[in-house]
Structures are given as structure tokens and as C-alpha cells.
Specification:
With 449 residues, the protein is α/β, with parallel strands linked by helices. It has 13 helices and 9 strands. The protein has a 7-stranded mixed β-sheet. The protein has a two-stranded parallel sheet with strand order 6-9. Helix 1 crosses helix 6 and helix 6 packs antiparallel against helix 7. The chain is flat and about 90 Å long.
């Protein structure tokens, strides 16, 4: 038994070393794409079995519902026959005596029916909600044999259960140890490379070292998630001394984009593991981290961004203007900060295929390490990256209008919904102005002239 474990360990280690070597040169043997094609066939097979079982259960439920409906109809007829022989005596007296209600009686008390219109509007708002459903896992058309999804059918059939168990063993006993070794190597490489490059004097040689080290690092990290990345229109890649903006689904958006280009990053300061990585990256290149709660930081960040893009030797700045992660179905309001700077904007649309793994990070539910664990135990990360032509602010538009135009181009290219809502509603309550407006409308409706 010990011998088998030892052999398995050396095999995984040798495989990891070969993957690291290929990733360093941006090469691939095509095994991941073959693996994904095989997964698609397995998913289709499991989905067909699931649908057959659901149809059978629906037929049984329909028969039961029909019987219950028939019984209830008979009871209603019986009650109606009994009610015809009952008459309200007080109402009969009023009708016989030509009763007229007084003015005091016309001022009736509040009735539950008075709020029916608002209840209807509230239910409609819940059903047609375009905000909160953007912060939850995207719904899948097919089940991908992951029990962490809302769609859980692992026990619906014996054949599906066997497939699910085999997938569970593959993901946790084969893929996860292999990916964990890659991840540990990538972290070690990060700290060592940034430390050594950070000790080199600023200049062209340091920028070249950082360029190649960054590409190698992120290509290795992409293998940690078995990422299959397809880049479109590479001629539109961001150039030095510019700003690159993209929709934001996950922290690994940075890894995905940095396998093809190098960026200076700007973002919220974090603690824990993420903060440790931010400090490491800052040793070898110029990155901008800020505290969103500090108003002084906003002006300082804008100033540093302006200085950064004015130097055409600097790497392009990568920004996610939404300010938070959205679940790969839409693009929400872009903050106007980076669009106030006089420079070229290079939009990028990122679209993940959720069938192989949900890349969305729900930061209110999972920590960074928990999220990485979920990613390393998913099947794979399949993503398309669309480089859009560079855009500049027109003479007749302000920063807000420019941000909306860029956002729309990203949404259209990525096949995402273009929403005007602020993504920060994920963490904060709606603004008081919106609440007061609804309260005023309610008061006008109740007002009696």
C-alpha cells in the first residue's frame, strides 16, 4: 500500500513538472481540450438520464394532482349547494327597508385589499429582480455532476450516482493533489521571483525580467484550474501607458488576462492571503492598492493613475470598474474614475463557460482560500476573452457617458446583460433617495381628497 502511494506521488510530481515546463513556454499538448470534450459527452449522458427520471416522477405527480383537483372540485360544489340555503338576516333587513349607508359608514376602516396593488408590484419586483440574482450562482442548462450547484441530482438514478462518485474521486483524489502541487510551486515562484526582481535597479532590464516572470507565473496558475483560454482579436491588446477595463466575475480574471499580457493592477487592499500576494507583486512592479473607505485615497489613486499612464514605459493598468464580482450573466454600472483620465481605454470582455465550473466568487459566502479550494476541485475553467478596439472619450461626452458606452460594448461582445444598477448593492442597502421616492408614491396613492 505504501509502495502504491509512493509511486502515485512521484507520478503526480513528474506530471506537475512537465506541465510547469510546458506552461513556462506557453505550450500545450491539447490534453485539456480532449478532456473537456469527454466531459461534455458525460454531462449529456447524465442529463438525459436525469430528464428521463424527472419525466417519470412528473407523470406520477400529475396523476396525484388531478385526483386531488377532482376531489376539491366536488367539495366546492357541495359547499355551494349548502350556501344557497343560507341568507344573511342583517343584509336581508337592509334590502327590505331600502337601507342607505351613512357618511360615517362610508369612511371605512383599512382593508387588506387596499394593499393588493402594492403586493402585486412587490411580487413582480421579486420575480423580475435584475440585481440580487446577479450575485448568486448562474443557472445551468445541463447538470455538470457537481453537488455544490443548486441542481443536485446525484441520487436520482443508480447510473448517475455511479458517475457522480467516479467524478468525485477523480476531482478530489487525482486532480486536486496535482493542482495543489502546481499551486504551491506557483506561490513559491511568486515570492522568490518578486523578491529577486525587486532587488534589481529600475530600468529596462528589470521591466523585461518582470514581463517574462509574470507571464510564466500566470500561465502556471492557469494550469492550477485546468484553464482553457481562447483569446480573440489579439491585435487589440492593451498597449503600455494605457488603461484596460474588463467585466469582473472572479479574482482569477487577473490570471486569465495575464497569461497573454502583463498589467499593472489597481484594486482594493485586502488582508490575509490576498493581501500577502498584493504585497509580493508590489515588490517587482508598480501596482496601486487603495482603501475604498478612505476618501483621501480616491484623489491619490486618480493622481497616481494619471502619472502612470503618462509614462509610456509602464505596463497598462488593468481595472475592473464594476468594483465587485458579478456572476458572469451581466455587466453592471462602471465607476467613472478611470474614465476621467485623458488616455486610451482598451475594453475586454470575459465570458466563462459555467458547465465545467462556476468561476463566480461570492465573497460574502466564501473566503479566498475557500474559493480557491472550490476552483481546484472543479472540472475545469473554460473562458473566452474578447479584445475590443481601443476607445477614447468624445468631445461631447463626460466620464459617465463614456463609461456607459464602454460598458455597452463589453456587454454586447460578451453576450452579457447591460444593467445600470450599482454592483455595490451586493454589500450595501439601496440609497435613501430611492426609498424616499417609493414612500412618497405610496403616500400619494393613499391620500384622500
Amino acid at each position: 500500500m505504501f509502495f502504491l502511494i509512493k509511486i502515485s506521488f512521484y507520478f503526480i510530481l513528474a506530471l506537475a513538472i512537465s506541465v510547469i515546463g510546458l506552461a513556462s513556454f506557453g505550450a500545450s499538448l491539447g490534453l485539456r481540450r480532449m478532456y473537456v470534450k469527454a466531459l461534455l459527452k458525460i454531462f449529456e449522458y447524465a442529463t438525459n438520464i436525469k430528464e428521463e427520471k424527472l419525466k417519470d416522477s412528473e407523470l406520477i405527480e400529475t396523476e396525484i394532482d388531478n385526483e386531488l383537483e377532482r376531489t376539491e372540485r366536488i367539495r366546492k360544489i357541495q359547499r355551494k349547494r349548502l350556501d344557497t340555503f343560507k341568507l344573511d338576516e342583517s343584509l336581508q333587513d337592509k334590502q327590505n327597508n331600502n337601507y342607505l349607508p351613512s357618511s360615517e359608514e362610508l369612511k371605512r376602516e383599512f382593508e387588506l385589499a387596499d394593499v393588493s396593488d402594492f403586493v402585486r408590484q412587490g411580487l413582480q419586483a421579486i420575480i423580475d429582480d435584475q440585481v440580487t440574482k446577479r450575485f448568486t450562482t448562474e443557472e445551468l442548462a445541463v447538470w455538470n455532476l457537481l453537488s455544490r450547484n443548486d441542481q443536485q441530482y446525484e441520487y436520482i438514478s443508480f447510473r448517475v450516482t455511479v458517475l457522480w462518485l467516479c467524478g468525485l474521486l477523480l476531482r478530489y483524489c487525482v486532480l486536486f493533489p496535482f493542482r495543489l502541487i502546481l499551486f504551491m510551486f506557483a506561490c513559491t515562484f511568486t515570492f522568490m521571483s518578486t523578491f529577486l526582481i525587486g532587488r534589481v535597479r529600475d530600468g529596462r532590464f528589470k521591466r523585461i525580467l518582470n514581463w517574462y516572470a509574470t507571464l510564466i507565473l500566470h500561465r502556471i496558475l492557469s494550469r492550477v484550474f485546468s484553464a482553457i483560454i481562447t483569446f480573440h482579436n489579439k491585435e487589440n491588446k492593451a498597449q503600455p501607458g494605457s488603461i484596460c477595463v474588463a467585466n469582473h466575475t472572479s479574482p482569477i480574471d487577473v490570471i486569465i488576462l495575464s497569461t497573454d499580457n502583463c498589467y499593472s493592477m489597481i484594486g482594493q487592499q485586502h488582508g490575509g492571503f490576498t493581501g500577502m500576494m498584493q504585497r509580493a507583486f508590489s515588490r517587482s512592479a508598480r501596482h496601486i492598492w487603495f482603501d475604498r473607505s478612505e476618501s483621501k485615497d480616491r484623489h491619490l489613486v486618480a493622481k497616481r493613475m494619471t502619472q502612470h499612464v503618462q509614462d509610456k514605459t509602464n505596463m497598462p493598468i488593468l481595472i475592473f470598474p464594476e468594483g465587485t464580482c458579478i456572476n458572469n450573466t451581466s455587466v453592471m454600472m462602471f465607476k467613472k474614475g478611470c474614465f476621467e483620465i485623458e488616455t486610451e481605454i482598451y475594453p475586454v470582455a470575459i465570458k466563462y463557460d459555467p458547465r465545467f465550473g462556476d468561476a463566480f466568487w461570492n465573497s460574502s459566502k466564501h473566503s479566498m482560500l475557500q474559493y480557491l479550494m472550490l476552483m481546484m476541485t472543479s472540472w475545469a475553467i473554460v473562458v473566452d476573452v474578447y479584445y475590443l478596439p481601443k476607445m477614447s472619450k468624445r468631445a461631447d461626452e463626460d466620464a459617465v457617458s463614456f463609461a456607459k458606452r464602454v460598458k455597452k460594448s463589453i456587454a454586447d461582445k460578451g453576450g452579457l446583460a447591460d444593467l445600470e444598477w450599482d454592483g455595490m448593492l451586493k454589500r450595501a442597502s439601496p440609497k435613501l433617495d430611492l426609498m424616499y421616492e417609493q414612500q412618497e408614491n405610496y403616500c400619494k396613492h393613499l391620500k384622500i381628497n
